[in-house]
Design a protein that fits this description.
Order of helices and strands: EHEHEHEHEEHEHHEEH
Strand content: 15-25%
Mean pLDDT: 90
Number of domains: 1
Shape: globular
Radius of gyration: 17 Å
Strand order of the largest sheet: 3-2-1-4-7-5-8
Length: about 250
């Protein structure tokens, strides 16, 4: 079943060509949406490649408000009912896209998460800082409590979903918290969630949004608190909604 691959970009000109080539090889029948809100040559490179491959669809995100907003734009533009978000920096090898899509395409999951921290995943090509290891451990464990089930990697840059599921989830955050929002809302609404081991590499180009040194410390601490609060808030609000209204998602839809 064909899928739409949503690649949200901000200044990824160093890696976008290789990323799109690898995505096109990994999922030959997929629509590839390149949603770009930056000012570098990322969109120009995607536009050039689209002339030879019409499955590549460059989308200029004129009113870019963050990664969550870019994913919302991609969902609205997607032609297929199966969708997958994937990062452009090649930290997640595009060769793993079929594995992440598989549970959704098979109808055994409504949401699939590519996990860096479960048995079968491969982090040997990535050098984690101590702060990021601790931050991921705290966020994943707290979010698991809020979901009522074990979640190994809620902030992963690769997820897949059905149109029915993502419409029901209806995530609102336009920055980075949307990653946790999607997972917690899905769990609290009773959607079927699959976790798939993936490989994880060092960034192949560009600059991490967290930065380095003191800036990295401040960014990770701030992001961590935002993610923990978001998971807690969504848990509480969805619990109240479920008590008031009963189940809202038909798993057969």
């Amino acid at each position: 079943m064909p899928a739409s691959i949503i690649i949200a970009c901000l200044h990824e000109e160093d890696t976008i060509r290789a990323c799109l080539e690898r995505v096109a090889r990994a999922v030959p029948d997929a629509e590839i949406l390149v949603v770009h809100g930056g000012t570098d040559r990322t969109l120009a490179i995607a536009t050039e490649m689209a002339r030879a491959n019409p499955r590549i669809v460059p989308v200029r995100n004129e009113n870019d408000q963050g990664k969550g907003h870019a994913i919302q734009v991609g969902i609205a533009r997607a032609s297929h009912d199966m969708m997958c978000q994937w990062d452009a920096d090649l930290q997640f090898p595009p060769d793993d896209i079929p594995a992440v899509l598989a549970p959704v395409q098979a109808g055994t999951a409504d949401l699939a998460i590519g996990s860096r921290f479960m048995p079968g995943s491969d982090r040997s090509q990535y050098k984690f800082s101590f702060l990021r290891v601790v931050g991921n451990w705290i966020v994943n464990n707290w979010t698991s409590l809020m979901c009522g089930q074990r979640m190994t990697d809620v902030t992963t840059g690769c997820k897949a979903w059905t149109r029915a599921a993502i419409t029901t989830i209806d995530f609102q955050d336009k920055k980075f918290v949307y990653e946790v929002e999607i997972v917690v809302r899905a769990a609290r609404l009773g959607l079927r969630i699959a976790q798939v081991p993936v490989r994880y590499h060092n960034r192949q180009g560009g600059v991490s949004g967290h930065g380095n040194g003191w800036r990295e410390f401040k960014s990770i601490v701030n992001c961590g608190f935002c993610l923990l609060w978001a998971a807690t808030h969504i848990h509480l609000t969805t619990c109240r909604a479920a008590n008031d209204n009963g189940p809202v998602f038909n798993k057969k839809s």
